[in-house]
Amino acid sequence: MTYEGVPGLVETREAHGETTLVVDPARLVEACTYLRDEHGFNFLSDIAATDYLGWPESTSQVAGYVGTASGRNINVPASQGLQRLPEGRPKRFAMNYQLLAVREGAPRLRVQVWLEDGESVPTVIGVWPTADWFEREAWDMMGIPIEGHPNLSRLLMDEDWEGHPLRKDYPLGGEPVRFSSEE
After folding, report:
1. Could you tell me the pLDDT band of residue 118, with boundaries at 50, 70 and 90?
2. In a domain, 16, yes or no
3. What pLDDT does residue 105 have?
4. Could you tell me if 10 and 26 are in contact, meaning their C-beta atoms sit under 8 angstroms apart?
5. Is 177 contained in some domain?
């Protein structure tokens, strides 16, 4: 399937049996409306935000556990000649919109936008109402502002929580645990 007519299309990638359309954040709603109306992607199954802070500088020593037909030994990290450094990322954050067309044999599609810290992305609630809680989760956990969202408030953390806990620059640690017997 071709997606040349998608508004704001920056790049198309094929990997792992899935097509990814990288879209300009300013034209996200327009692109999503087009994909819903022209290509039948009538279901938004997920929005996943990813933080690539320090990528790929922090991954200079890449090795892993490579599986083979005979299995893998997790006690011996190795690249078996397949080691490669990960590609750079255009901006710090990626918002990934997983789309489905609810019909027999329909493809899956990922729409991706790249954002810097503090850069907002428009809401797609008008295209798919299921985006409501997914967008609130992206705000709550990653701090990605969703422009035009009708109720952009904490979803998982307490309202008075400071920061966004899934960001790579969120401080580790926390408060000591209090047990009820220690009063």
Report:
1. very high
2. yes
3. 83
4. no
5. no
Structure tokens given for 115: 């954002």
Section 58-74 average pLDDT: 58
**Residue 93 belongs to domain spanning:** 9-62+75-147
Q: What residue has token string 């935000």?
A: 49
pLDDT digits (tens, 9 = 90+) for 69-79: 666 665 655 55
- The residue with tokens 């080691």 is 83
